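Lab channel / #folding
Pinned by the channel admin:
"Please post every new chain as: sequence first, then the structure tokens as a reply. Keep commentary short and put observations after the output so the thread stays searchable."

First post following the new format, from NK:
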Amino acid sequence: MPRRITTAIASCTLSLGALASGAGVATAAPSAAVAAPPLRPAIDAHAAAVDRCSYQVVRSDDSRYAYSVRGVVAGSARELPVQKEDFVRFSDGWHKVVQIDACSGGQGPAPDTLSVVGKLQNPEYYEPSVPRTIRSDAVKPGPSSVIPKAPALTSVTRLDAATVRVTWEPAQGNPDQVLLMERKPFYSSEIDLWHPYTFQRNAPAGATSMDRKLERDPGIPPASRSHAYWMRVIKGGFVSDLRAEKPTTVEP
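Reply from TO:
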């Protein structure tokens, strides 16, 4: 066999061998595993102590569910009674704020963790795919220092027959939002009825007063005519103590 043909055959054989070897290595190499994103809990919640026995839980809300808060102390879980709750509009939307009594009237130890459980109401009206029970992660409560303090409301002054000026002390601690809460008659056209409704008014930065109009429609029932005002602040995802709110009432 001519030398050049022998050399060509040898080169071709070497190339094919290298290719086969490379293919074998590629086939044997393990495929890279793609990490799945962590599953988010059905209920977003965080918590902090307000005082020794009261804890504030801020959670997401789905109106289809009835919620409860459970505390774990020394490995034992129990449902905790609600002291006060309200819907609050944070910068990222509405959340339910619940304050619970961790001592239940006694002087028990502080809970190690808190969690929220939601039970589907009227499950017979929902498809089987809708979860009957939803839960938050177990959360360790933050310290009471993260609960902001609302400024004191100092006066509600009548400016004229239909206007009042609400004045409060300067807010301390640089809260994210200062809120003037206003409860007054509200007309619902759907049911053709006046009824008390609470509004959340964002106060401008640095403001210490706000003028508000009184509802004086003659169709308002006497039991629904009163107006009330109080202060609330938001900071770091928590709200000032709901139990400390003392509305000042005005009759139009």
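NK: Residues 160 and 213 are 10 Å apart (CA to CA).
TO: also worth noting, The longest helix spans residues 3-28.
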